[in-house]
Amino acid sequence: MVKLATAREARMYGPPLAVRRWEYINAGVYVFAALLLAAGLAAVCAGGGGAGLAVAAAALAGVAAVNAHDLAAHLAGVDWRVGLALYDAQLGLVELLVPALHAVGCVLGVVGMAMLVSQGEGAGSSSYSHRKEKHAANMLLAAALLWLLGSVLNSCQVYERADGRAQLLQSSVQVPLLLGSLLFLVAAVLNRRRVPGEQAAQGGRWAWLWPAGSALWLAGAVCNVLKVFMMHQSDALRLEKLRGGAQERLSRDREGRVPLNWEEAARRRALPTELR
Questions:
Q1: How far apart are the first and last CA of the chain?
Q2: What are phi and psi of 205, to 5 degrees?
Q3: pTM
Q4: Which region, left, alpha or beta, applies to residue 120 given φ > 0 means left and ψ of -120 to 50 means alpha?
Q5: What would the mean pLDDT of 113-132 be, rounded to a whole number?
Q6: Which residue in 90, 115, 111, 188 sits closest to 147, CA to CA?
Q7: What is the pLDDT of residue 271?
Q8: I need a surface site. Which of 16, 65, 213, 228 has the fewest CB within 10 A?
Q9: Please, what's the b/e burial string for 234-271 (b: 16 or more CB within 10 A of its CB; e: otherwise)?
Q10: In Å, what is the CA distance from 222 to each residue of 65, 149, 177?
C-alpha cells in the first residue's frame, strides 16, 4: 500500500487553477487510507476478523485510486506522450510504472481480502473453502511482491537539480514505504504457511508484521504531506526536469501547438524557414 514519491516538475494533478488543491487532496486521501489500513490490520490481529479485513480492503481501494491519480497526473504533465519514456528512462520506470504496479497490487490485495472475508470465521464456517483460502493467500503474496518492486523502483531516482533538502524529503517518504513493503512481503510469505482455517494476520509470532508494516506506510504518508507542502512553498525546491532530450522535445511540441503569445508567433512567421 505505497504510492509514487517523485520530485518531477512535469506533473498535473488537476485543472491549472486547482493543481495544488488536487495534489493536497491526493496526499490527504493517502494518509487517511494508510490510517484505515493500520486500524483494520490491528483489528484483525486483535481478533476483529472479517470487519478488520473489510476496513483494510476499503483502505487498499482508496490507495488504488490515489495511484491511478498519480499516473494520470504524470501522463498529463507530459501531455500524455508516453513515447518520451524512450528518451528518459526514469519517466517510464518510475513516474509511469511505479503507480501502475502499486495500483495493480492494491487491486490484488482487495480481491484477496474479499476472499478471506467470505471465508467467515474459518474452518468451522459453512462458507469455508480451503481452495479459496489458498487463492487469497496467493493474491496477497502477489500484491506484496508488486508493492516491493514498486518501492524499489521508487527509490531508484536520479537527481541533477534537486538540492539536499529535496532529496532528504524524498528519502523520508521512500524509505518507510520500502521497509513497510518488505515487512508486508515477509508477512504474506508466512501467511501462506499458516494453519488452514486460521484467520489471516491473526495468531503466531509473525502477526505483528502486518500492523508494523502498515505503521511504516502511515509514517511515509505523513512525510509525503510534508514533502508536497514544501514543494509548493514560495521558495520552492528545485524540481527535476525530463532528461535525455525529452524536455526539449516536449517544449518544442508545446510551442508548436500553442504559441506563447501573438507577438512571438508573428515574429517566427517573419523569419526565414531555416531560422525558425
A1: 49
A2: -70, -15
A3: 0.83
A4: left
A5: 70
A6: 188
A7: 52
A8: 16
A9: eeebeebbbeeebbebbeeeeeeeeeeeeeeeeeeeee
A10: 18, 22, 11
* Percent of the chain clearing pLDDT 70 (strictly above): 83
In DSSP notation, 28-86 reads HHHHHHHHHHHHHHHHHHTT-THHHHHHHHHHHHHHHHHHHHHHHHHHHHTTT-GGGGG
* pLDDT tens-digit map of 188-198: 888 877 645 45
**Amino acid at the residue 49:** G
Say if residue 203's pLDDT is above 80.
no
Altogether, the residues listed in the chain come to a count of: 276
Q: What is the largest CA-CA distance in the chain?
A: 84
Residue with cell 507542502: 229
Q: pLDDT value at position 98?
A: 94
